[in-house]
Amino acid sequence: MNDFLIIIPAFNEEENMVSVIGTLSRLNKPFDIVIIDDGSTDLTAQKANECGADVIRHPTNLGYSAAIQTGFKYAKKKSYPYVIFFDGDGQHDSSNISDMMEAIQLENVDVVIGSRFLQKGNMKIGFSKKVAINFFQHIIHLTTNKCITDPTSGFKAYKAKVYEKFTKSSEFFYDLPDSNFIIDILLRDLNILEIPVNMFNRQYGKSKIHTTGLKPVIYMAQTLLSILIVVIKKKKIVRIGGDLN
């Protein structure tokens, strides 16, 4: 077993599995790979198995948040010191894995976020998503006084002392863990480092997160509610003399 575990949440990504796992395997880096198949109805799990990756399957589609927590629980069970989340849709650039591995091992870093906005990349972002990203940048700064350039990035690395906290359902209650999760981490006085990464638009399949119609509005409202819960929870713990850590 290696010190690093790359966790790939996937739902109906059979067209991308071979490419995603292949690009990672060709790096010849000291990490293991696990696919969290979130109830796919296609050949996602079969393709991943054929590529030699370990696969954990949800019996039904439980959502991205559940896939993340399953990854955390698997890593804790195996006692991995570090985990890296990597998208199964081909949008993350495997050439940045080495940078993520190096950054998360720094002494005063607890979480690393791969930001597409710290360098010019190939990914095109729609107007509604740009609005949401800018909005949550301001919310994070307002609640934590910290600047996070890419609050919706799924390309993240965690040390064990962080991800193990969120294996408990009471600590990880998020429907979509984006800005709300980042705020929770920062309010625990944990250190987040952003590093520049490249991202691509997906080549096959459709995004599981809707970016048209009322869906972005609903997403922003749900995230704001979750942020409110996080802030109230933090104030309650501080008031009674508890410890966020």
UniProtKB/TrEMBL annotation:
Coiled coil: none
SUPFAM superfamilies: Nucleotide-diphospho-sugar transferases
Glycosyltransferase 2-like domain location: 6-165
UniProtKB keywords: Membrane, Transmembrane, Transmembrane helix
Lineage, broadest ranks: Bacteria, Bacillati, Bacillota, Bacilli, Bacillales
Domain of life where this protein originates: Bacteria
Taxonomic source organism: Psychrobacillus insolitus
UniProt xrefs under InterPro entries: Glyco_trans_2-like, Glycosyltransferase_2, Nucleotide-diphossugar_trans
Name recorded for this polypeptide: Glycosyltransferase 2-like domain-containing protein
